[in-house]
Amino acid sequence: MLDIVKEEPGIGVGALASSFDVSRIAVMKHLTVLEGANLIVSEKDGRTRRLYFNAAPIQMIHDRWTTDYSAYWAGQLTRIKYLAEAREEQNKTKKGKSKND
Amino acid sequence: MLDIVKEEPGIGVGALASSFDVSRIAVMKHLTVLEGANLIVSEKDGRTRRLYFNAAPIQMIHDRWTTDYSAYWAGQLTRIKYLAEAREEQNKTKKGKSKND
DNA sequence: TCGACATGTAACTAATAGGTTACATATAAA
DNA sequence: TTTATATGTAACCTATTAGTTACATGTCGA
Predict the structure, then answer these.
(1) What architecture (CATH level 2) is domain B2-96?
(2) What distance in Å separates the CA atoms of residue A5 and residue A22, rounded to the nearest whole number?
(3) What is the ipTM of this complex?
(4) CB < 7 A to strand D: residues 35-64, chain B
(5) Quick one: closest CA in B to A73, which residue?
């Protein structure tokens, strides 16, 4: 839904709904959630409600969770990398024989 | 929940649950959702399951929705993500039943 | 003014989420 | 070996969501 709204800024509710197999009302319910999260903002243009993608909340979440990004991120990637390597090690061990731990 | 896990990398499930008014099982249900989204990754340490915050999905969403994806970064993150997912998948499989592949 | 178009609201049903308690299993400590 | 600790699973109940159809309201075009 966000893909479509981003690709076609100003698209109407009905036009957006036509891209899905569910009813227009179902799409409107999803829209309400996305508007509540400020990911989509709208403005009335006659009888059409025009929809626009809003990246601000994603930017805010990114800023919040990646503050001190370089240092933290490097550490996190390293940790995940080690977890993955440990998994591969264990995988080799299990294939060799029945698990013994 | 993410705040706590980020502040205390390696925290156990029970310790995390003690910060909330709901039961440990309720917290575990939320954890399952966060792990499914790869926002939290875990590793077993004896009888304790240690939890770690993973900013990668947020970075990926940010990259997707706010800038063009850099080929290098996408490849790097995706590779590590798949490794972590594979580890989690195996972890689930081991705990779910005695799968012997 | 009337018909067409676009959207909004209400009421309903089915499915899912959220939380609980009880019990089981694995691991560490005594 | 036994007890304690940490976690996982199952079954249950309640609240909320997801989707539907029908109808209402607002705006534009003829």
Answers:
(1) Orthogonal Bundle (1.10)
(2) 17
(3) 0.72
(4) 47-49
(5) B55
